[in-house]
Design the sequence.
């Protein structure tokens, strides 16, 4: 019954998933491919999913339940793998910034208030000026 109620949230999550995937892809071609892949995957799931539930397995539907558990386990593995991969990329980028004489960790100014962002930008400028670099070095 709990799963049934969780499905009510799916209608609100689906548009957010599409917009999140679209916003995290740089370039028009990548956005189109990302959105198309997401849509095709969803369509394939909606076609294959019902085919795994056989009336002769009622009320337990072992094949459908097994497929669901496998999909959730695969999703769990993908989430953990993606988290580890993103950590690796962040460490590489921090090391690259240090090699260039820049700060290893930069704060996200998009979540700061205007005053906090201005103060942080001045702090960065002063830190870079002390090393003889300009703010433009952050974007090279």
Sequence:
């Amino acid at each position: 019954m709990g799963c049934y109620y969780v499905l009510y949230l799916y209608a609100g999550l689906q548009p957010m998933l599409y917009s999140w995937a679209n916003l995290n892809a740089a370039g028009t071609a990548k956005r189109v491919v990302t959105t198309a892949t997401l849509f095709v995957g969803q369509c394939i799931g909606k076609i294959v999913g019902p085919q795994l539930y056989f009336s002769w397995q009622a009320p337990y539907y072992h094949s459908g339940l097994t497929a669901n558990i496998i999909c959730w386990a695969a999703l769990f593995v993908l989430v953990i793998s993606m988290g580890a991969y993103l950590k690796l990329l962040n460490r590489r980028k921090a090391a690259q910034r240090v090699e260039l004489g820049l700060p290893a960790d930069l704060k996200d100014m998009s979540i700061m208030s205007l005053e906090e962002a201005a103060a942080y930008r001045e702090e960065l400028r002063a830190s870079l000026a002390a090393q003889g670099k300009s703010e433009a070095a952050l974007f090279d």
User: Anything to note?
Assistant: The radius of gyration is 23 Å. The helical segments are 2-23, 28-51, 62-99, 114-130. The mean pLDDT is 88.
